């Protein structure tokens, strides 16, 4: 009898823990991408992308590295992801999302560091990354670096046609000459 009661008690205590791990409310903002080591001199264009649930007031949040924290701008509109950069003009050309200015008190370390998203002093999200390869963005969801602007397009092959290849600057004269000839004449020259 005691064994049955003990088994029931243990089963009741373990059951709720295994049923659901979902939260009841909407998830808060989270850091999803970092670009700490741009190819530009002085690391101009580094950025942090934050996923933002609808109705979130970002001005109540701070982004912190290992030395400082800065308040986030709340003028992000209705986008689900917002990019924060110390050089928004340069970053806009790198990403296809809204870019908001971030105080240059935050500088992402090329050698790696920990970034935290704070709400009222409490950590709501944290990302730690290692040495940043130049020109690559860190995807916090997959824990992987990827070249910024990389595409996953399939290889395309074709048959027929005329192709002329050249490499600059070794012999730029042929390329310049080819560009000066009108297209209809270059077609006839290519077939000779």
Automatic annotation (TrEMBL):
Ranges where the record places region Disordered: 149-192
This protein's name: Lamin tail domain-containing protein
Organism the protein comes from: Halovenus salina
């Amino acid at each position: 009898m005691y064994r049955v009661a003990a088994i029931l008690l243990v089963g009741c205590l373990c059951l709720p823990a295994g049923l659901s791990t979902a939260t009841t409310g909407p998830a808060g903002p989270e850091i999803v991408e970092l670009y700490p080591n741009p190819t530009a001199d002085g690391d101009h264009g580094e950025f942090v992308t934050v996923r933002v649930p609808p109705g979130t007031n970002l001005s109540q949040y701070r982004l912190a590295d290992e030395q400082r924290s800065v308040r986030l701008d709340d003028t992000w509109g209705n986008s689900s992801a917002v990019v924060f950069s110390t050089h928004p003009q340069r970053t806009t050309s790198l990403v296809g999302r809204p870019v908001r200015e971030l105080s240059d008190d935050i500088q992402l370390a090329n050698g790696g560091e920990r970034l935290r998203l704070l709400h009222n002093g409490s950590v709501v999200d944290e990302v730690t990354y290692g040495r940043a390869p130049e020109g690559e963005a860190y995807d916090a969801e997959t824990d992987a670096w990827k070249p910024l602007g990389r595409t996953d397009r399939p290889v395309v092959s074709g048959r027929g046609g005329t192709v002329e290849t050249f490499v600059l600057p070794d012999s730029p004269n042929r390329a310049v000459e080819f560009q000066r000839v009108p297209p209809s004449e270059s077609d006839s020259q290519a077939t000779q």
